[in-house]
């Protein structure tokens, strides 16, 4: 077995995974990161389970070819489908974002928890199962918000259309919710609108923070050495558009490498 390279893989259908990347760096994770955006197939949430599982297999195979030591998932839809249909075999460990998010509710005081996610994630019931495994007495409601990912991907997260789309989905939540989980990594990029329309006593929860803590534990357990703290970006979509999005959202020096869509 070769020595660890000090390199982590991270994938998403688009820019949503940047919220996980941001959390990893904020937590002091200094391994090199390979970020793959499957923009040829964004959004995942309106695709079939079989299609999403196929995208997941391709993403993991790509990251394996780039010799990562482990993969940190940044796509809830793919985790939801993998929990249902089975994770593809890989030569490295894969950190399931939904499992990490659910485990974080152990010992918390939240009892009416709302999860806003893609249609694929909601129909899987993965968040409810994961949260109930840690907090059996909690009431969990899940709502699909298919309009949100396209707004974020198009660069319209700050628009009034995004505010209206957030308001529309929040209006479907039952009274008395005490926590709202961003069940899609794109949604923290709309946090300003959720903060505006939610009641002030509702805690907004971004699973990326728990994923960062879980990544710290994984790195320590596997003995993955530090890298150079660099991030290499790849996409099978328009590299110029993705590069502009990455620079706008958080990495002004980003360079994106184009890949051929499978």
Our count of helices gives 11
Beta fraction: 15-25%
Question: SSE order, as H and E?
Answer: EHEHEHEHEHHEHHEHEHEHE
CATH class of the largest domain: Alpha Beta
Low-confidence stretches: none
Form type = globular
- Do you know the CATH architecture of the largest domain? 3-Layer(aba) Sandwich
End-to-end distance: 29 Å
Counted up, domains total: 2
* Cα Rg: 17 Å
Q: Please outline the major beta sheet.
A: 6 strands, parallel
What percent of the residues sit in helical stretches (DSSP H or I)?
Answer: 40-55%
Write the CATH fold name of the largest domain. Answer: Rossmann fold
DSSP strand tally:
10
Structural class: alpha/beta
Q: What is the mean pLDDT? A: 96
Q: What oligomeric state do the depicted chains represent?
A: single chain
Ordered list of secondary-structure elements with their pairings:
Layout: E1 7-12, H1 17-26, E2 32-37, H2 49-65, E3 70-73, H3 76-85, E4 93-95, H4 97-103, E5 112-117, H5 119-124, H6 126-134, E6 139-144, H7 148-153, H8 160-170, E7 179-182, H9 191-197, E8 203-205, H10 207-222, E9 231-235, H11 239-249, E10 256-258
Parallel strand pairs: 1-2, 1-3, 2-9, 3-4, 5-6, 5-7, 7-8, 9-10
Structure explained in plain terms:
- The protein has 262 residues and is an alpha/beta fold.
- The chain has two domains: 7-98 and 209-258, Rossmann fold, CATH 3.40.50.1860; 100-207, Rossmann fold (3-Layer(aba) Sandwich), CATH 3.40.50.
- The chain has eleven helices and ten strands.
- The strands form two sheets. The protein has a six-stranded parallel sheet with strand order 4-3-1-2-9-10, sandwiched between helices.
- Helix 1 (17-26) packs across helix 10 (207-222), helix 2 (49-65) packs across helix 3 and helix 4 (97-103) packs across helix 10.
- The radius of gyration is 17 Å and the shape is globular.
């Amino acid at each position: 077995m070769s020595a660890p390279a000090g390199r982590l893989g991270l994938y998403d259908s688009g820019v949503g995974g940047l919220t996980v990347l941001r959390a990893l760096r904020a937590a002091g994770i200094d391994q090199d990161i390979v970020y793959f955006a499957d923009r040829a197939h964004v959004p995942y949430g309106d695709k079939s389970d079989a299609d999403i599982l196929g995208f997941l297999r391709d993403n993991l195979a790509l990251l394996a070819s780039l010799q990562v030591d482990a993969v940190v998932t940044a796509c809830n839809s793919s985790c939801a489908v993998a929990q249902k249909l089975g994770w593809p075999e890989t030569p490295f460990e894969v950190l399931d974002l939904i499992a990490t998010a659910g485990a974080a509710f152990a010992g918390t005081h939240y009892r009416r928890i709302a999860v806003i996610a893609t249609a694929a994630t909601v129909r899987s019931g993965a968040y409810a199962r994961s949260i109930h495994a840690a907090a059996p007495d909690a009431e969990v409601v899940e709502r699909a918000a298919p309009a949100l990912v396209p707004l974020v991907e198009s660069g319209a997260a700050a628009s009034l259309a995004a505010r209206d789309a957030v308001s529309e989905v929040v209006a479907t939540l039952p009274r008395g919710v005490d926590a709202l989980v961003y069940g899609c990594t794109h949604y923290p990029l709309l946090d300003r609108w959720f903060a505006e329309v939610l009641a002030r006593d509702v805690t907004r929860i971004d699973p990326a923070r728990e994923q960062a803590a879980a990544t710290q534990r994984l790195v320590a357990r596997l003995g993955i050495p530090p890298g150079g703290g660099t991030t290499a970006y790849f996409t099978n979509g328009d590299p110029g558009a993705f590069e502009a999005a990455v620079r706008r959202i958080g990495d002004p020096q980003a360079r994106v490498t184009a890949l051929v869509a499978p």
